[in-house]
Design a protein that fits this description.
The complex is a heterodimer.
Chain A (H helix, E strand, L loop, with lengths): L8 H10 L4 E10 L9 E5 L4 E3 L7 H13 L4 E6 L16 E9 L1
Antiparallel strand pairs in A: 1-2, 1-5, 2-3, 4-5
Chain B lengths: L2 H12 L4 E6 L5 E4 L13 H9 L4 E2 L5 E6 L3 E6 L3 H11 L3 E6 L15 E3 L3 H4 L10 E4 L4 H13 L4 E4 L3 H13 L4 H5 L14 H18 L1
Parallel strand pairs in B: 5-6, 5-8, 6-7, 8-9
Antiparallel strand pairs in B: 1-2, 1-4, 3-4
The chains are: A alpha+beta, B alpha/beta.
Protein backbone atom coordinates (compact mmCIF):
# COMPACT_ATOMS: atom_id res chain seq x y z
CA UNK A 1 0.00 0.00 0.00
CA UNK A 2 1.00 3.64 -0.24
CA UNK A 3 3.39 5.11 2.27
CA UNK A 4 1.71 5.12 5.61
CA UNK A 5 1.82 7.99 8.04
CA UNK A 6 1.95 5.31 10.73
CA UNK A 7 4.99 3.54 9.32
CA UNK A 8 7.59 3.57 12.07
CA UNK A 9 10.98 2.96 10.42
CA UNK A 10 11.93 6.63 10.16
CA UNK A 11 10.94 7.21 13.79
CA UNK A 12 13.18 4.30 14.72
CA UNK A 13 16.01 5.84 12.67
CA UNK A 14 15.67 8.99 14.75
CA UNK A 15 15.81 6.97 17.99
CA UNK A 16 18.98 5.20 16.84
CA UNK A 17 20.61 8.52 15.95
CA UNK A 18 19.64 9.91 19.37
CA UNK A 19 21.42 6.90 20.88
CA UNK A 20 24.58 8.02 19.02
CA UNK A 21 24.46 5.26 16.43
CA UNK A 22 25.45 5.68 12.81
CA UNK A 23 22.43 4.99 10.64
CA UNK A 24 22.14 4.05 6.97
CA UNK A 25 18.71 4.23 5.36
CA UNK A 26 17.96 1.71 2.59
CA UNK A 27 15.00 2.37 0.27
CA UNK A 28 13.61 0.29 -2.60
CA UNK A 29 13.62 2.74 -5.53
CA UNK A 30 12.80 0.50 -8.49
CA UNK A 31 11.39 -2.98 -9.07
CA UNK A 32 11.05 -5.16 -12.16
CA UNK A 33 9.08 -8.39 -12.42
CA UNK A 34 7.80 -9.97 -9.24
CA UNK A 35 9.37 -8.39 -6.21
CA UNK A 36 8.04 -8.88 -2.72
CA UNK A 37 8.31 -5.33 -1.43
CA UNK A 38 7.06 -2.28 -3.27
CA UNK A 39 8.92 0.91 -4.17
CA UNK A 40 9.37 3.02 -1.04
CA UNK A 41 9.92 0.06 1.30
CA UNK A 42 12.56 0.80 3.90
CA UNK A 43 15.15 -0.67 6.15
CA UNK A 44 17.68 0.91 8.52
CA UNK A 45 21.10 -0.44 9.45
CA UNK A 46 23.51 0.72 12.15
CA UNK A 47 27.29 0.36 12.38
CA UNK A 48 26.96 -2.87 14.37
CA UNK A 49 24.92 -4.46 11.59
CA UNK A 50 21.61 -4.36 13.51
CA UNK A 51 18.73 -3.77 11.13
CA UNK A 52 15.00 -3.06 11.17
CA UNK A 53 12.39 -3.05 8.40
CA UNK A 54 12.76 -4.82 5.04
CA UNK A 55 13.50 -4.28 1.36
CA UNK A 56 12.63 -7.79 0.15
CA UNK A 57 11.14 -10.95 1.56
CA UNK A 58 14.42 -11.84 3.24
CA UNK A 59 16.26 -12.48 -0.06
CA UNK A 60 18.73 -9.59 -0.08
CA UNK A 61 18.63 -8.13 3.43
CA UNK A 62 22.00 -9.58 4.46
CA UNK A 63 23.67 -8.18 1.34
CA UNK A 64 22.11 -4.78 1.98
CA UNK A 65 23.43 -4.86 5.56
CA UNK A 66 26.99 -5.52 4.38
CA UNK A 67 26.72 -2.77 1.72
CA UNK A 68 25.52 -0.38 4.43
CA UNK A 69 28.42 -1.33 6.69
CA UNK A 70 30.89 -0.64 3.84
CA UNK A 71 29.24 2.73 3.24
CA UNK A 72 29.85 3.67 6.89
CA UNK A 73 33.42 2.27 6.83
CA UNK A 74 34.33 4.14 3.61
CA UNK A 75 32.41 7.20 4.84
CA UNK A 76 30.49 7.58 1.57
CA UNK A 77 27.15 9.44 1.47
CA UNK A 78 25.11 7.17 -0.77
CA UNK A 79 25.07 4.28 -3.26
CA UNK A 80 22.63 2.56 -5.61
CA UNK A 81 22.65 -1.25 -5.62
CA UNK A 82 20.83 -3.53 -8.07
CA UNK A 83 19.85 -7.10 -7.30
CA UNK A 84 19.01 -9.46 -10.12
CA UNK A 85 17.69 -13.01 -10.44
CA UNK A 86 19.90 -15.40 -8.52
CA UNK A 87 22.62 -17.13 -10.49
CA UNK A 88 22.80 -20.78 -9.54
CA UNK A 89 26.43 -21.15 -10.54
CA UNK A 90 27.63 -18.67 -7.98
CA UNK A 91 27.00 -18.15 -4.31
CA UNK A 92 25.87 -14.63 -4.93
CA UNK A 93 22.83 -13.03 -3.47
CA UNK A 94 19.75 -13.00 -5.64
CA UNK A 95 16.01 -12.85 -5.53
CA UNK A 96 14.59 -16.34 -5.40
CA UNK A 97 11.28 -14.96 -6.66
CA UNK A 98 12.81 -14.01 -10.00
CA UNK A 99 12.32 -10.27 -9.67
CA UNK A 100 14.85 -7.47 -9.76
CA UNK A 101 15.12 -4.55 -7.40
CA UNK A 102 17.21 -1.43 -7.03
CA UNK A 103 17.95 -0.28 -3.50
CA UNK A 104 19.32 3.13 -2.62
CA UNK A 105 21.37 3.37 0.56
CA UNK A 106 22.27 6.66 2.22
CA UNK A 107 23.86 7.72 5.46
CA UNK A 108 21.80 9.95 7.73
CA UNK A 109 24.18 12.63 8.90
CA UNK B 1 19.83 12.43 4.07
CA UNK B 2 20.40 15.17 6.59
CA UNK B 3 19.15 14.74 10.16
CA UNK B 4 17.28 18.02 9.70
CA UNK B 5 15.38 16.55 6.73
CA UNK B 6 14.56 13.42 8.72
CA UNK B 7 13.17 15.53 11.56
CA UNK B 8 11.04 17.52 9.12
CA UNK B 9 9.70 14.27 7.61
CA UNK B 10 8.72 12.99 11.06
CA UNK B 11 6.96 16.27 11.83
CA UNK B 12 4.98 16.13 8.56
CA UNK B 13 4.11 12.49 9.20
CA UNK B 14 2.80 13.10 12.70
CA UNK B 15 0.69 16.08 11.58
CA UNK B 16 -0.58 13.96 8.63
CA UNK B 17 0.35 16.63 6.10
CA UNK B 18 0.69 15.32 2.53
CA UNK B 19 4.24 15.66 1.22
CA UNK B 20 6.91 13.99 -0.89
CA UNK B 21 10.57 13.29 -0.33
CA UNK B 22 12.66 14.17 -3.40
CA UNK B 23 16.09 12.53 -3.57
CA UNK B 24 18.86 13.10 -6.08
CA UNK B 25 20.28 9.58 -6.33
CA UNK B 26 23.59 10.82 -7.74
CA UNK B 27 24.65 13.18 -4.98
CA UNK B 28 22.32 12.19 -2.14
CA UNK B 29 20.62 15.61 -1.83
CA UNK B 30 17.08 15.41 -0.54
CA UNK B 31 14.22 17.86 -0.14
CA UNK B 32 10.73 17.88 1.27
CA UNK B 33 8.11 18.88 -1.28
CA UNK B 34 4.57 20.04 -0.55
CA UNK B 35 1.95 19.44 -3.29
CA UNK B 36 0.99 22.57 -5.20
CA UNK B 37 4.28 24.37 -4.48
CA UNK B 38 7.33 24.71 -6.78
CA UNK B 39 10.13 22.25 -6.13
CA UNK B 40 13.35 23.94 -5.08
CA UNK B 41 16.79 24.17 -6.72
CA UNK B 42 17.96 21.16 -8.71
CA UNK B 43 14.46 19.60 -8.50
CA UNK B 44 12.66 22.60 -10.04
CA UNK B 45 12.79 21.34 -13.63
CA UNK B 46 10.83 18.22 -12.65
CA UNK B 47 7.77 20.08 -11.27
CA UNK B 48 5.31 18.40 -13.67
CA UNK B 49 6.65 14.88 -13.10
CA UNK B 50 6.63 15.30 -9.33
CA UNK B 51 3.03 16.52 -9.33
CA UNK B 52 2.09 13.50 -11.50
CA UNK B 53 3.53 11.14 -8.91
CA UNK B 54 1.25 12.82 -6.39
CA UNK B 55 -1.80 12.48 -8.59
CA UNK B 56 -1.15 8.79 -9.25
CA UNK B 57 -0.26 8.20 -5.56
CA UNK B 58 2.90 6.42 -6.62
CA UNK B 59 6.58 6.35 -5.70
CA UNK B 60 9.39 5.99 -8.21
CA UNK B 61 12.31 7.32 -10.20
CA UNK B 62 11.45 10.05 -12.73
CA UNK B 63 12.11 8.74 -16.23
CA UNK B 64 15.51 9.65 -17.73
CA UNK B 65 16.66 11.18 -14.47
CA UNK B 66 18.24 10.23 -11.18
CA UNK B 67 15.45 11.76 -9.09
CA UNK B 68 13.48 9.53 -6.72
CA UNK B 69 10.04 10.70 -5.59
CA UNK B 70 8.34 9.23 -2.57
CA UNK B 71 4.84 10.49 -1.78
CA UNK B 72 3.00 10.45 1.52
CA UNK B 73 -0.73 10.55 0.84
CA UNK B 74 -3.44 10.99 3.46
CA UNK B 75 -4.95 7.77 4.76
CA UNK B 76 -8.34 6.59 3.58
CA UNK B 77 -11.17 7.50 5.94
CA UNK B 78 -13.09 4.57 7.36
CA UNK B 79 -16.20 5.15 9.46
CA UNK B 80 -17.30 2.38 11.78
CA UNK B 81 -20.81 2.42 13.17
CA UNK B 82 -20.90 0.49 16.43
CA UNK B 83 -18.14 0.68 19.02
CA UNK B 84 -18.34 -3.07 19.53
CA UNK B 85 -15.68 -5.72 20.21
CA UNK B 86 -14.99 -6.31 16.47
CA UNK B 87 -14.33 -2.58 16.09
CA UNK B 88 -11.49 -2.81 18.60
CA UNK B 89 -9.72 -5.37 16.40
CA UNK B 90 -10.49 -3.37 13.24
CA UNK B 91 -8.73 -0.40 14.82
CA UNK B 92 -5.65 -2.55 15.44
CA UNK B 93 -5.53 -3.84 11.84
CA UNK B 94 -6.21 -0.41 10.32
CA UNK B 95 -3.19 1.12 12.07
CA UNK B 96 -0.68 -0.66 9.86
CA UNK B 97 -2.76 -0.27 6.67
CA UNK B 98 -3.02 3.51 6.29
CA UNK B 99 -6.72 3.71 7.14
CA UNK B 100 -7.96 6.48 9.42
CA UNK B 101 -10.83 5.30 11.57
CA UNK B 102 -13.69 7.24 13.15
CA UNK B 103 -16.30 5.47 15.23
CA UNK B 104 -19.94 6.42 15.63
CA UNK B 105 -22.08 4.99 18.42
CA UNK B 106 -24.89 6.75 20.26
CA UNK B 107 -24.62 4.25 23.13
CA UNK B 108 -22.32 5.91 25.64
CA UNK B 109 -21.32 2.75 27.44
CA UNK B 110 -19.83 1.37 24.19
CA UNK B 111 -18.28 4.50 22.81
CA UNK B 112 -15.83 5.19 25.60
CA UNK B 113 -12.37 6.64 25.09
CA UNK B 114 -10.97 4.02 27.38
CA UNK B 115 -12.07 1.29 24.93
CA UNK B 116 -10.73 3.24 21.94
CA UNK B 117 -7.67 5.30 22.87
CA UNK B 118 -6.39 7.68 20.11
CA UNK B 119 -9.48 7.14 17.93
CA UNK B 120 -12.12 9.71 17.10
CA UNK B 121 -15.25 8.35 18.79
CA UNK B 122 -18.46 10.28 18.19
CA UNK B 123 -21.07 9.53 20.81
CA UNK B 124 -24.06 10.63 18.70
CA UNK B 125 -26.70 9.21 16.36
CA UNK B 126 -25.38 8.82 12.79
CA UNK B 127 -27.35 11.78 11.40
CA UNK B 128 -25.68 14.25 13.81
CA UNK B 129 -22.36 12.42 13.80
CA UNK B 130 -21.96 12.79 10.02
CA UNK B 131 -22.14 16.55 10.45
CA UNK B 132 -18.79 16.30 12.22
CA UNK B 133 -17.01 14.19 9.60
CA UNK B 134 -16.00 15.27 6.13
CA UNK B 135 -16.83 12.46 3.72
CA UNK B 136 -16.61 11.82 -0.04
CA UNK B 137 -16.45 8.98 -2.56
CA UNK B 138 -13.11 7.91 -1.05
CA UNK B 139 -14.72 7.16 2.31
CA UNK B 140 -15.65 3.68 3.56
CA UNK B 141 -18.42 2.65 5.96
CA UNK B 142 -18.48 -0.44 8.16
CA UNK B 143 -21.80 -0.89 9.98
CA UNK B 144 -21.48 -3.27 12.92
CA UNK B 145 -24.44 -2.77 15.27
CA UNK B 146 -26.97 -4.82 13.18
CA UNK B 147 -29.52 -2.59 14.88
CA UNK B 148 -31.65 -0.91 12.18
CA UNK B 149 -32.12 2.19 14.34
CA UNK B 150 -28.38 2.85 14.26
CA UNK B 151 -27.11 1.14 11.08
CA UNK B 152 -29.85 2.15 8.62
CA UNK B 153 -29.41 5.94 8.77
CA UNK B 154 -25.64 5.48 8.36
CA UNK B 155 -26.08 3.12 5.39
CA UNK B 156 -28.49 5.57 3.77
CA UNK B 157 -26.03 8.41 4.24
CA UNK B 158 -23.18 6.33 2.78
CA UNK B 159 -25.27 5.32 -0.26
CA UNK B 160 -26.36 8.91 -0.93
CA UNK B 161 -22.79 10.14 -0.66
CA UNK B 162 -21.43 7.29 -2.84
CA UNK B 163 -18.89 5.84 -0.40
CA UNK B 164 -16.56 3.45 -2.27
CA UNK B 165 -17.05 0.69 0.27
CA UNK B 166 -20.14 0.00 2.36
CA UNK B 167 -20.37 -3.13 4.47
CA UNK B 168 -22.93 -4.24 7.03
CA UNK B 169 -22.65 -6.97 9.63
CA UNK B 170 -25.49 -9.42 10.12
CA UNK B 171 -26.78 -12.81 8.97
CA UNK B 172 -28.24 -13.40 5.51
CA UNK B 173 -31.72 -13.01 6.99
CA UNK B 174 -30.79 -9.76 8.75
CA UNK B 175 -29.34 -8.50 5.49
CA UNK B 176 -32.45 -9.46 3.47
CA UNK B 177 -34.60 -7.47 5.88
CA UNK B 178 -32.16 -4.59 5.66
CA UNK B 179 -32.31 -4.61 1.84
CA UNK B 180 -36.08 -4.58 1.98
CA UNK B 181 -36.12 -1.55 4.28
CA UNK B 182 -33.70 0.28 1.97
CA UNK B 183 -35.89 -0.55 -1.03
CA UNK B 184 -38.89 0.86 0.81
CA UNK B 185 -36.85 3.98 1.54
CA UNK B 186 -36.45 4.44 -2.23
CA UNK B 187 -32.96 3.08 -2.94
CA UNK B 188 -32.44 1.29 -6.27
CA UNK B 189 -31.42 -2.37 -6.57
CA UNK B 190 -27.97 -1.36 -7.82
CA UNK B 191 -27.42 0.82 -4.79
CA UNK B 192 -28.62 -1.84 -2.38
CA UNK B 193 -26.52 -4.54 -4.07
CA UNK B 194 -23.43 -2.40 -3.69
CA UNK B 195 -23.59 -3.00 0.07
CA UNK B 196 -21.34 -5.85 1.19
CA UNK B 197 -23.67 -7.89 3.35
CA UNK B 198 -23.13 -10.13 5.18
CA UNK B 199 -19.89 -8.20 5.52
CA UNK B 200 -16.40 -9.64 4.96
CA UNK B 201 -14.76 -12.30 2.82
CA UNK B 202 -15.36 -15.95 3.72
CA UNK B 203 -12.65 -17.13 6.08
CA UNK B 204 -14.79 -19.41 8.21
CA UNK B 205 -13.77 -17.81 11.50
CA UNK B 206 -16.27 -16.75 14.12
CA UNK B 207 -14.23 -14.93 16.77
CA UNK B 208 -14.12 -11.13 16.91
CA UNK B 209 -10.53 -10.82 15.56
CA UNK B 210 -11.30 -13.34 12.79
CA UNK B 211 -14.37 -11.39 11.70
CA UNK B 212 -12.38 -8.15 11.86
CA UNK B 213 -9.71 -9.76 9.65
CA UNK B 214 -12.33 -10.85 7.08
CA UNK B 215 -13.77 -7.30 7.01
CA UNK B 216 -10.42 -5.56 6.69
CA UNK B 217 -9.38 -8.01 3.92
CA UNK B 218 -12.52 -7.12 1.96
CA UNK B 219 -11.89 -3.41 2.54
CA UNK B 220 -8.30 -3.65 1.26
CA UNK B 221 -9.42 -5.59 -1.81
CA UNK B 222 -12.12 -3.00 -2.61
CA UNK B 223 -9.63 -0.18 -2.05
CA UNK B 224 -7.47 -1.54 -4.87
CA UNK B 225 -10.48 -1.89 -7.19
CA UNK B 226 -11.34 1.77 -6.63
Amino acid sequence: MKNSFDEKILDEAKDWIKANQKVVLATVIQTWGSSPRQVGSRMIVNEKGDFSGSVSGGCVESAVVSECLSLIKDNKPCKKIEFKVSNESAWEVGLACGGEIAVYIEQIH
Amino acid sequence: MKIKTLEEILKKKSSKTEFAILTNLENGDSEIYLPGTSPKGEFSKYAVEIENFFKSKKNGVIENSEIFVETYIKPIKVIIVGAVHIAQYLVDFAKSLNFEISIIDPRGYFASEQRFPDIKVINKWPKEAFEEIETNSSTALIALTHDPKIDDPALQYALKNKFYYIGALGSKKTHENRCQRLAEAGFTNDEINSIHGPIGIKLGGKSAPEIALSIIAQLVSQTYKK
